[in-house]
Amino acid sequence: MIHTAVLKKEVLEYLDPKQNESFVDCTVGEGGHAEEILAKNGPEGKVLGIDLDPHQISASQWLHVQFKDRIVLVNDSYTNLSEILERKEFKPVNGVLLDLGMSSAQLEGTQKGFSFKIDQGLDMRYNDEMNYLTAEKIVNDWPEEEIERVIREYGEEKFSKKIAANIVEKRKQGRIKTTFQLIEIIKEATPGAYHRGKIHYATRTFQALRIAVNDELENIKRVLPQAVSALAPEGRLVVISFHSLEDRIVKNFLAEESKKKSLKILTKKPIAASREEVAKNLRARSAKLRAAIKI
Question: Tens place of pLDDT for every residue, the chain, 295 residues?
């Protein structure tokens, strides 16, 4: 499974890595962005790569072969950024990158139920040891009102009421355990025309459940102040989001920090992928990059 990191050129432009500077990639994934940064910040510059998913940390081990001790990998939540930096004695920090997208391997290569293309258990946790909540628990044990709220707020799904109602109705017949079961329930609850839309009719519900399981939006709110605090003067913050809820949090945070004169915003509007990149990597179509520099 090959994952292509999005907006590589734009990440380098806004992070602007120079010789011997050090950076934090809070969502290192399979190392696509980290590799680009390390190619620019030698001979002594480092990258601290963090990922909550242990499989992603394993997938980025190849960076050690090429860059030796210039890459430091940590399997942890980026919400613990300040503590990780202290523990690893990693400073100064000249730039922080947050790529909030999922990798191809996470979507299709794990047995976590992230993808609606494969019949898997409804897990959706990035890390089993740090989280007990699963998508299966939500759809089977939560009240209908809470399921509806999650699908509506986190998935921005216009048929949230009908989907939640059908989930609760179907679970009376037996526990909902697999992705294909859930997809069929969503299909039954939505009109035929919705099934022929640009995006798969289950996309928003799956997104909503994944966000709820991993507390993703609150985690973004937790990490952003830590990132700003960690940055050295003139250090840069770059965030890539993939849906409007994430982007809104980042936009509002940068606006508030700009008012406080702690950050200068470098992107008046979010940077999108070029047509050429989207043609090569369809997942880049929803990517939005925002950047700022510490004053």
Answer: 445 789 999 999 999 999 999 999 999 999 999 999 999 999 999 999 999 988 889 999 999 999 999 999 999 999 999 999 999 999 999 999 999 976 545 455 557 888 888 899 999 998 887 778 999 999 999 999 999 999 999 999 999 999 999 999 999 999 999 999 999 999 999 999 999 998 899 999 999 999 999 999 999 999 999 999 999 999 999 999 998 999 999 999 999 999 999 999 999 999 999 999 999 988 889 999 999 999 9
CA atoms within 13 A on the CB side of 60: 29
Asked if 33 and 96 sit in the same domain, the reply is yes
Domain presence at residue 2:
no
Q: Is residue 161 part of a domain?
A: yes
Count of domains for the chain: 2
Find all residues with CB under 8 Å of 48, minimum gap 6, and list them. Answer: 22, 23, 24, 25, 72, 74, 84, 85, 88, 90
3-state secondary structure of 41: coil
Specify the pTM. 0.90
Same domain for 210 and 115 = yes
**Does one domain contain both 63 and 127?**
no
> Are β-strands 288-294 and 231-241 bridged in parallel, bridged antiparallel, or unpaired?
antiparallel
95 and 127 in a single domain? The answer is no
Tell me, yes or no, whether 3 lies in a domain.
Answer: no
